[in-house]
Amino acid sequence: MTQQTLMPVTQPSFKGWIGIGREDITPPTGIYARNWGAATHEVAAGIHLPFTLTAISFRQGPEQPPLLLISADLGWWKSVADERRLREGILEALALQPYQLMFCLTHTHAGPSTFTEDSHKPGGHFIAPYLEKVQQAAIAAATHALQTAVEATLTWHYGKCDLAANRELPEPGSSRIITGLNPALAADDTLLVGRITGADEQILGTIVNYACHPTTLGAANTLLSPDYPGAMRVVVEAHTGAPCAFLQGASGELAPAEQYSGDVQLADHYGRQLGFAVLSALEAMLPPGKALAFTGVVESGASLAMWQQTVHQPATALQSELSVVNLPLKDLPSLADIEAAWEVCEDHVVKERLWRQRGIRKTIGDGATASMPLWVWRLGDTILVGQPNEAYSTFQQELRKALQPAAVVVMNIVNGYAGYLPPEGSYSQESYAVWQTPFAPGALERLITSATAISQRLILSA
Fold this sequence. Notes:
Radius of gyration: 22 Å
Number of helices: 9
Oligomer: single chain
Low-confidence stretches: none
Strand order of the largest sheet: 5-4-3-1-6-10-11-13
Helix content: 25-40%
Distance between the termini: 35 Å
Mean pLDDT: 95
Number of strands: 22
Strand content: 25-35%
């Protein structure tokens, strides 16, 4: 009988030079903040929780080129020009190339407008100065991260949280799919937590990657709020004493069960739910630079398998690739047709939808395909994938299945925005995502194929 060798149990990790910076980006009260077609207010009346921007820098060594990950409490981009202006200003100030930066939005639906073309609306005069504030905050946080970086270890652990639910409900007596809790369908409950520790094993920061729309607060809410990610940070940072960055996962069809509320206490409740799950994942981690090794058998009432902590050298590889994926587009109205329909529309809800569709049309252009950027980074045993759109959870599930045992961080709304990416089979349904997306069936599957191939190439290149 062949004797089996038991391999040590390790956790995906990266060891290198890591720095963290944090800035406050709370918008001004009175800024234009009408995010819902059903809303009756135009401007924000107050603040629920502070909005934050967190920058994390990664280097193989203190003099090596960095990768910069930024998480900001913002909703989504309606203009490619606004997003590009902000990001290119950061790149120029820090002397970075486009492949070195992922600027991620937490996707709160209770934030300010980021669309400078809303400047003519009530409170719209605050938008351009606010975006300038966000840009300067990003530069300051990133500079701090780069200047204060130390040798540190980033360790990852998968956990679970059932905050997210499927939000595509067949309407009784209709062929429509309405946007709300569908208790009959399971949701991806995967939580991925990263812990950054210094040489003394003190926690320097945490990273939370979870897929769930921050739509707790809806049309009745008049307060600016980072939604549940902000409340989650309150819990985690109180426990660790270190900054926590939230990365929105592939949440196209995922949202809390109860949502669209006017009560910020519900967002606090959800934040605690996710926050406690994050703390549980942190407690489940091995110390940095450790693995569990099988050391033999102790005979007792039962034959006891003995596992003990042993030294493990974290991986140090750091690689990045920026690719362009050409995604097919649906037959769409022209920009001129959308603008003409918007001008004569008198229904407030429909007018809001047309205004959003106009922004998407301006972003993708008039061709048959749209060139969508895809960022893939390798940090040790971990792959980070970022792209601009709202991919469904199939995106992260397929990547994690194909790339295991690597930990896989998947991020929506990175460095831009155009629309939803539903699975090909969803296009037969009358859902909001299918109506809203500019992309044709098969776009998500093409993105999955590209992201998988790039990731596998990076993993095998070491």
